[in-house]
Amino acid sequence: MDLKNVASLSFFYPEFILSATILLLIVVDLVARSPRGIAMIALIGCFGALIATLDLYSAQPGWLFHRMMILDNFSLFFKVVALAATILCIWMSLSSNEIKQVHEGEYYTLLLTCTLGMFFMASSSNLLMAYLSLELVSLTSYVLTGFLPHNRRSSEAALKYLIYGGVASGTMIYGMSWIFGMTGSLDYAAIQAALSQSPFNKASLFMAFIFILAGFGYKIVFVPFHMWSPDVYQGAPTPFTAFLSVASNAAGIAIMIRFFFPGVSRALPSGDWAFLSGVEWPQVLLFLSMITMTLGNLCALNQRNLKRMLAYSGIAHAGYMMMGLAVLNNDGLSAILFYLVVYLIMNVGAFLVVAMIANVTGNEDIETYRGLAWRGAIVPAVCLAVFLFSLTGLPPFAGFVGKFFLFSAVLKQGGAFGALALVAAINSVISLYYYAKIVKTMFLDMPNPEDKTVSIAVNNFTLLIPLTVLTIFFGVYFSPLVRYTSQSLRFFVK
Amino acid sequence: MENVLTYMTFIPVAGAAIVLALPNNAKLIRWVSAAATVPPLLMAVWLFKNFDRAKAGFQFIEDYTWIPSYNISYTMGVDGLSISMVLLTALLSFLCIFASFGIEKAVKGYFALFLLLDAGMMGVFCALDFFLFYVFWEVMLLPMYFLIGIWGGPRREYAAIKFFLYTLFGSVLMLLAILALYFAVDPHTFDMRILMAQANRYSTEVLPIWPFHQLRWGFQHVVWMALFIGFAIKIPAFPFHTWLPDAHVEAPTAISVILAGVLLKMGTYGILRINFPMLPAATADMAFILLGALGAWNIIYGAFCAMAQKDLKKLVAYSSVSHMGYVMLGMASFTTQGLNGAVLQMFNHGTITGMLFLLVGVIYDRAHHREIDGFGGLAAIMPVYTGVTALAFFASMGLPGLSGFISEVLVLLGTWQKYPVLTILGASGVILTAGYLLWTIQRVYLGPPNEKYLKMPEINGREMFTLVPLGVIVIVVGVYPSVVLDLLRASLDQINQIVIPHL
Fold it and tell me: Residue B169: which of A429, A482, A486 has the nearest Cβ?
């Protein structure tokens, strides 16, 4: 279906709910200054949007708003992921000391606006829409990163993020202009039609793709567009870092898959995708993927700050996920979707523990974790160990299954991808070293006599325990999640 | 008894859960943990009694769908090869719980992790689905890391992470090999029985990629090598053995016993279970150098290293490297005697080295050091202890009448028909072994008693309880090896028959 403006509105209610919540938050913040109440409104709004999004699964896929957006299972999947990350972030913010210092009304308003931007990113089917939604997400992220008052790290991170983001999106829109020049359209379907009909200059098309990749790459955080991430992760308030590490990455992947797969590639009945012939695209992605995971892991080895370490580990994980893009088949794509869900659970879980400990000790340095398990915080220590081993990719945790699917998608292609799989496998071993270093500090090192006991209130576990259980559950029984992700891999193409 | 293998594997997990829920009472936790290892032991005895020795295929099979979309199933089953390892695992886990009664630090965590380790080991030997096998293989790593890392000696952190990194490196290669095999069969499956049945269909055509075309390696060889490295690290074969002395020296006694007794066997078990029947052509090509010659080198290298050690536990650790060499050598021969000898050696090494580590633990608990030169004349102070030690040392040396002799002789007999030179080298290892063990006996047990240890208490009832069953097995198998050999024969012949046409 191809709907006009008014007709589209009836398929747009999750976005309506989010927008209404954002407006309501502004009004309530003016009238009643109750931080808890505001958080609750934001939470309820997100749950409402979640229910509405799930409801749309039964709707017929199609274009909305004169082909500006697409409604299909693929976009819905990323909306669900964005909402889940937002809900977890709000939940974490509730008990975070960092967030207590800031103006909560604005914080939640911006957070939900960011989520709304991700909604648009997931469903945009037009380069202009893609650019605008990406900027909406970026702008709110800059503000949220620098949200901590009188915190130099936070301000510095926001500035770096802003400069990098500005350059990256400038480069991207330049690439888009090349595409527009070559094809005369911004609409994905029209671009594909134009590229498949008339002969085009392969070198200039390749350059245009590289430019566009800069914009997507800085959202997904892969090399060489990763430099902002360690500073931003370290400087931003921890709940927002958790949100950013997962949701921003996911939205970047959504927009990239949408443009490069149903946008300019052609689906073959075998489940493979045929990229424009003559453009050496998979090789570029394969190379970037190897570099990204290796660099991320090697840089993480020597980090002393946990948030910074997790930032580099996030770069490495972006590299793993790119394996699924490079193989150009549906197995790879569904492996990415699976990995995203798993990554959401385990990475938010890890940041949750970091935030919890930072609430008590005041910092995120690895020294403060010394002998944590023997200082009264055995439950968070065990949970963090579970998340970290899951990030390493050890069974019986969900991270293993995610990596397993990525590896299997890569090995199925064979050939040069065998080398990619080998590099990824060796990277898993490297990553074990720094993840295990944290575990070692918590369990194997004995606390110094001057280390204080860390007492964590039981109500903090309401989120932690379910995330841990899910990490183990999806590691042992992942059929439902596999079914969900393979259902989500349905694109609307003409 | 239906699903007996599942019960054997998961009763310890339930035990671990119960242990975690118990109040912090060390005595209670110890006995509950011990109780959790009794049913698997009884079931192992039941399996031993009801196992049909004439049949070569898998028995007591359980097959359930797990993840249908990827054709992953929960399949368990044992044949002669795995049942011997299952028996060993059940017995050693039971005894090691008692050997761990001296643990005082974080008792609950220790026993819970120990029981998880037990489950992982049992699962590896029972799993017939490759995915399941891999999951169990990795599940074992985590408890081991913590058991060495928390309850180990002074350099425990280094030893634990070294063990972890080495083994994970091997297992990721194994994972890639598993996936390569999965995609090589149509329809894709992880079922080991189907993968074995399709063995001849994996390509051996030389790959046109450097360095494979230089080595004349095909798909089968590359996969074989990836699996082999994973297993060689566990065995541990030279040059992947360096984690072993560190891990052994730092690990608490019971964990050393499990490491040497069960974990090392997983390497050779994997080669026999997976490399032999699934990749027979590559096995035939690689066996001489990577199993035979490397095995002989392991025997001699391990023995010389053992001879140079000052630490009693490190000596036993290197003797493991040496003795596992016999297993590799025997496997490379592709003769009935050689293969049976190799698997019998796996079993015997488990019992004998188990005893040796327990015995080292006994004096370490009393003297708090393990310097070989720091003792002397213990025979006069602890006569019973010295008697048991002598039994274990002689068994390790291969004295006729004890179990080590049978397996080493079978291995050498089997190898002689194929590789006489390697056999001579391997046999010289027997002399070296006698050399370092007798020299150790002389330094530690004979001579004038050391003044410092005149008051050292004799071995106690609990320690005897852990040693006696192993000692009895060592003697029984030494006199009547058919107890074990009958279990193995049919299955090993079948595995051998798959490889022989490719020689």
Answer: A429
3-state SS assignment for residue B340: helix
Report the candidate in B155, B198, B179 with the shortest Cα–Cα distance to residue B72.
B179
Task: Kindly report, residue by residue over B167-203, the tens digit of the pLDDT.
Answer: 999 999 999 999 999 988 888 889 998 888 887 778 7
Convert the pLDDT of each residue in A469-491 to its tens digit: 999 999 999 999 999 998 888 88
Spatial contact of B268 and B342, defined as CB atoms under 8 Å apart: yes
Q: Is the CB of A445 less than 8 angstroms away from the CB of B149?
A: no
Residue B461's CB is within 10 A of a number of other CB atoms, namely 6
Query: ∠A306-B135-B105 over CA atoms, to 5°?
Result: 60
Per the omega criterion (within 30 degrees of 0), is the bond before A149 cis? no
Q: Which of residues 459-488 of A touch B (CB under 8 A)?
A: 477-479, 482-483, 486
Residue in A412, A428, A432 closest to B183 by CB: A412
CA nearest A411 in B: which residue? B180
State the smallest CA–CA distance between residue B215 and chain A in angstroms.
18
A376 Cβ under 8 Å from any chain B Cβ: no
Buried-exposed string B184-213: b where 16+ CB fall within 10 A, e elsewhere: bbeeebbbbbebbeebeebebeebeeeebe
Do A357 and A368 form a contact (C-beta atoms < 8 A)?
yes
Residue B161 and residue A396: Cβ atoms within 8 Å?
Answer: no
Residue whose tokens read 């819970």 = B112
| Any A CB within 8 A of B446 CB | no
- Listed by start position, the domains of chain B span 295-503
The verdict on ipTM greater than 0.90 is yes
